[in-house]
Amino acid sequence: MENKEALVCTFISIFISLQFLFWRFLRPRFNARQTRHLDPPSHTMTAESYESEFLSYMIRKSKLVNKALDEAVPLCQPPVLKIREAMRYTLLSGGKRIRPMLCLAACELVGGKESTAMPAACAIEMIHASSLIQDDLPCMDDDSLRRGKPTNHKVFGENIAILAVDAFIALAIKHTVESTSLDVHPRRVLRAVLEMAKGIGTEGLVAGQAADLAGEGMSFDNNEVGLKHLEFIHVHKTAALLEAAAVMGGIVGGGSDEEIESLRSYARCVGLMFQVVDDVLDVTKSSEELGKTAGKDLISEKLTYPKVMGVEKSREYADKLNREAREHLKTFDPDKAAPLLFLADYVVNRQN
């Protein structure tokens, strides 16, 4: 399949899948299983117990997300069995689950329940999985290693990998609409789906990927110009999906417009910070430590933060973004915001 045809298929799958919005009003009431969630740790705790409590929180959330993802993409009969196998290969291959965790924590922060946001959290992880498959294709970054395993197209072939990307986008929309509790107003469900679509298309991932491809081999005499181009890439390619995760959680959780915009600003800082750290790790860690090909950006002559501002300045910039992210949560109760505050610290300090 030609690259243009693959991209067209991706967009078509988005619009076709919007028909599932109407199913929401015809299906029986969704009886969501109420899952007990961890209350955010008190700010009076010591730093050590706070960290331990948050790591337990992350493990609990990850297990719940993994179970929900496993149930959302079951194996089925041919002829789509191979595509489902390819989807599950990437979706269930581990990962930090930062995006779904962000979605769940945002929902709880504005007073919603974990179970209310779980469909949206799974949907955003499906979109993330689709972006990883697409990013690794020979026509994109041409990578052969992801999370310590062969990339999707190396195992299933390029044709199945591309179809898995299309299927993920359709399923993400369908799952959000079908599985979100009927207690959430239909307008909020529609708003959440539109936020996800925005994060995928030419206002988000697609724009960032296009700019990333265009920037390969480019040199900028002025570092400020190079930094602006780099910021455009990662505000769209990386931050947009984290932004969508937080905003979707805030929307289905019943957050006010002001709360949702604060979550959006927080997540944008975290998204950029994630990429800055990712770029630094790419030039300071081994492939074994990262679980993916180290130094790939350097070989591909990609524009990166270390390339524009150096490793130390990049680390300083990540710290600055962490401070800004925390600033955007100051209007919330500090105890309730604790998981998101620690999540930002986790992202800036991660080692793979």
UniProtKB/TrEMBL annotation:
Keyword check for Flavoprotein: no
InterPro entries: Isoprenoid_synthase_dom_sf (IPR008949), Polyprenyl_synt (IPR000092), Polyprenyl_synt_CS (IPR033749), Prenyl_diphosphate_synthase (IPR053378)
Keyword Iron-sulfur part of the UniProt annotation: no
Cofactors: Mg(2+)
Known pathway: Isoprenoid biosynthesis; geranylgeranyl diphosphate biosynthesis; geranylgeranyl diphosphate from farnesyl diphosphate and isopentenyl diphosphate: step 1/1; Isoprenoid biosynthesis; geranyl diphosphate biosynthesis; geranyl diphosphate from dimethylallyl diphosphate and isopentenyl diphosphate: step 1/1; Isoprenoid biosynthesis; farnesyl diphosphate biosynthesis; farnesyl diphosphate from geranyl diphosphate and isopentenyl diphosphate: step 1/1
Domain of life: Eukaryota
Xref: Gene3D superfamilies: Farnesyl Diphosphate Synthase
Stretches that traverse the bilayer: 6-26
Keywords: Carotenoid biosynthesis, Isoprene biosynthesis, Magnesium, Membrane, Metal-binding, Transferase, Transmembrane, Transmembrane helix
Pfam family, one: polyprenyl_synt
Family per record: Belongs to the FPP/GGPP synthase family.
UniProt protein name: Geranylgeranyl pyrophosphate synthase 10, mitochondrial-like
Encoding gene per record: LOC104765895
